[in-house]
Design goal:
single chain, alpha/beta, Rossmann fold, 7 helices, globular
């Protein structure tokens, strides 16, 4: 049994959840862990000097719990899937050639060093400011975004977090979130599937 950990990061409303779900549907023996599932209660999220809730920082998330779930998958992906009602079917002739794939999706997954170190593949979806703002304004959040939240907090924090990410992380494949969803899925799925085949011993390592 072999494992592959894929990170799908990106800005708010960039399409990372859609891409992750589509990858999961295409790739056997895969599952998703989404960073958005680990937000702390609203009362525990700090405010900045403008009174905006700081959801766009690591301290707003239960990263220890998220890492515990990731580690559980890494120890025994088959049991992890069964416990969540996702028991995999055998997809290859022998167990030692099976590859289990974990898709970790979130906006700060590459900024958290212990998690970033685990990724075999890293993808980051980006979209322009105006598109991001329009998509964000069309969604309903709990609690809802206060007036000026996107311009005053969300976008500045995205720029800050991205700068930090690029200073500490290498090997990220940047994706254009304006491209058709099918095109993005095809490109990423091809890349991931090639890595799966390499792990199964059917393809040589890159550069060989």
């Amino acid at each position: 049994m072999k494992t592959l950990v894929v990170g799908v990061g990106g800005m708010t409303n960039g399409g990372k959840s859609t891409l992750s779900r589509s990858l999961h549907q295409q790739i056997p023996n895969s599952c998703i862990i989404a960073q958005d599932s680990y937000f702390k209660d609203d009362s525990a999220v700090p405010e900045d000097s403008n009174g905006f809730k700081q959801y766009d920082i690591l301290d707003a998330l239960h990263m220890d719990t998220m890492m515990s779930d990731v580690d559980s998958w890494r120890r025994d992906p088959e049991t992890f899937l069964r416990q969540r009602g996702l028991g995999p079917e055998r997809t290859t002739p022998s167990a030692d050639r099976e590859v289990f794939v974990l898709i970790v999706e979130g906006f700060l997954i590459f900024n958290y060093r212990p998690l970033n170190e685990l990724f075999d593949k890293r993808y980051f979806i980006q979209i322009p400011y105006d598109v991001c703002k329009r998509r964000r304004s069309s969604r309903v959040y709990t609690p809802p975004d206060p007036p000026g939240y996107f311009e005053g907090h969300v976008w500045p924090m995205y720029l800050k977090n991205r700068q930090e990410m690029e200073s500490i992380v290498s090997g990220i494949v940047f994706l254009d979130g304006l491209k058709p969803k099918e095109e993005l899925l095809a490109a990423v799925c091809k890349d991931v599937c090639q890595e799966i085949e390499r792990l199964r011993g059917k393809l040589p390592k890159a550069g060989m």
